[in-house]
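Regression test case RT-17, inverse folding.

Input:
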């Protein structure tokens, strides 16, 4: 499987995920398949870093795409999550991840891992979609580029922590604030709590992306750069138009 095919798989997965959020938010299969997208794109960022002859140009293209995509991102996902939705598109997180491994690679001082921590924290506090997970996953793919076993191991650890961090925090918060076990169990059974937790637990399916990544043969394939950079804002605009002007809000 070459890079072009891997990118197409990521694009299809992302489109299905976004179709699910816009039109079928309660059908989990869209979100499960959609979880293939982020790890594939993170992997391609790390792969691109090793292969590009112009990191500055690569970063500039990603940043430009993020800026162009910001308005379509907000327009489309405010239909799903309300007009109060703020924050930045995932493309900013991919650019941040690229910048993080670039600075880490160029740094010569001891303790340069602080660069990765700072990059992850920026993702969180800047409210970028993907926050720390995308930055750390790009770093994992960069750091263990030549060892699929290590990539899979550390991605597994990161994904498990990311998946169960919120449920575990909920339990910790309940215990430390004197919430009775009975009340906590009652809250866990409410549709609102179940829906909120399912949005996190479904992230375990990020690990499915390890299958196509393992099958990647290192070859470039056909040049689909224009398609790859254009599909994100274009497909969001198309979904917005269909939702608002065809289906109706």
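Golden output:
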């Amino acid at each position: 499987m070459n890079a072009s095919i891997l990118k197409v798989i990521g694009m299809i997965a992302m489109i299905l995920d976004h179709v699910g959020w816009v039109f079928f938010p309660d059908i989990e299969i869209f979100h499960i398949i959609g979880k293939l997208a982020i790890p594939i794109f993170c992997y391609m960022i790390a792969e691109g870093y090793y292969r590009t002859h112009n990191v500055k140009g690569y970063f500039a293209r990603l940043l430009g795409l993020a800026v162009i995509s910001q308005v379509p991102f907000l327009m489309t996902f405010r239909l799903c999550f309300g007009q109060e939705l703020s924050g930045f598109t995932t493309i900013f997180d991919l650019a941040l991840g690229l910048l993080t491994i670039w600075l880490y690679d160029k740094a010569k001082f001891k303790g340069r891992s602080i660069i990765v921590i700072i990059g992850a924290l920026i993702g969180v506090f800047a409210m970028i979609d993907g926050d720390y997970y995308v930055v750390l996953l790009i770093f994992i793919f960069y750091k263990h580029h030549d060892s699929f076993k290590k990539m899979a191991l550390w991605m597994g650890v990161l994904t498990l922590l990311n998946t169960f961090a919120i449920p575990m925090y909920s339990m910790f918060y309940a215990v430390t604030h004197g919430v009775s076990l009975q009340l906590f169990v009652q809250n866990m059974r409410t549709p609102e709590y179940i829906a909120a937790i399912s949005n996190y637990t479904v992230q375990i399916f990020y690990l499915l992306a390890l299958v196509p990544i393992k099958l990647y043969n290192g070859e470039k394939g056909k040049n689909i750069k224009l398609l790859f950079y254009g599909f994100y804002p274009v497909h969001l605009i198309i979904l917005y138009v269909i939702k608002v002007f065809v289906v109706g809000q």
